[in-house]
Amino acid sequence: MGLPEPGGPKSGRMSWPDYFMSITSLVAERSTCLRRKVGAVAVKNKRILATGYNGAPAGMADCLETGCMRERLGVKSGERHELCRGLHAEQNVIIQAAVHGISLYGADLYCTHQPCLICSKMLINCGIRAVYFANPYPDETAERFLTEAGVRYLHLEPTVKVNICMDHAVV
After folding, report:
1. Structure confidence at residue 167 (pLDDT)
2. Angle at 40 between CA 37 and CA 45, to 5 degrees
3. Contact, 53 vs 27, CB < 8 A?
4. Does residue 29 carry a pLDDT above 80?
5. Which residue of 37, 38, 52, 118 has the fewest C-beta atoms within 10 A of its own C-beta?
6. Is there a contact between 83 and 73 (Cβ–Cβ < 8 Å)?
7. For 65-92, b where at least 16 C-beta lie within 10 A, e where not — what string?
8. What residues contact residue 112 under an 8 Å CB cut-off, 6+ apart?
9. Regarding beta strands 39-44 and 47-53, do their DSSP bridges make them parallel or antiparallel, or are they unpaired?
10. Helix, strand or coil, per DSSP, at residue 68
């Protein structure tokens, strides 16, 4: 039996899951999506491997500049993802890790929102071992795929509120 994990209510320190989930909220602040700000962080052995937020591909105009195509077309949330200019936060985590030669195999993913089916399939193929999310998203198929693939899948209620200020984050 190992030593107790540092952090948590008894120690007065933030737990590791709360720490990483709080960081996802800060990462989400870089989002250029007009509908939903999403942030994701890949973690292994308590070390951040890559981060991602939702937005247009590098070098392209984003929705802050062009407006939201899906909004203009009246597309409901969770439908017709191919019409969006942006990539999902989870996709950007995978891309950033690949660009920098970092394996995500055996890593955990913390995300502000429950991953969609497309992202879930990508995370499964990357070898992500667990997905933790703060905000549920109605995609039962994604949940079923992750469960079938043996990926731990857990809704974490945020216990720490991160206030974003002009110059820094205040916990």
Report:
1. 57
2. 160
3. yes
4. yes
5. 118
6. yes
7. eeebebeeeebeeeeeeeebbbbbbbbb
8. 24, 25, 28, 37, 38, 39, 40, 89, 133, 134, 135
9. antiparallel
10. coil
116 near 131, Cβ under 8 Å?
A: no
Range of 10-24, 34-48, 50-64, 80-94 with top mean pLDDT: 34-48
Question: Which residue carries 């089916």 as its tokens?
Answer: 117
Share above pLDDT 90 across residues of the chain, in percent, rounded to a whole number? 60
Among candidate residues 57, 40, 39, the one with its CA nearest the CA of residue 104: 40
Given a contact cutoff of 8 angstroms between Cβ atoms, the answer to whether 33 and 92 are in contact is no
Give residue 1's pLDDT band: very low, low, confident or very high (50, 70, 90): very low
Q: How far is Cα of residue 166 from the mean position of the Cα atoms in its chain?
A: 23
Does 90 qualify as catalytic in the annotation?
A: yes
Q: Which of 5, 29, 79, 90 is catalytic?
A: 90
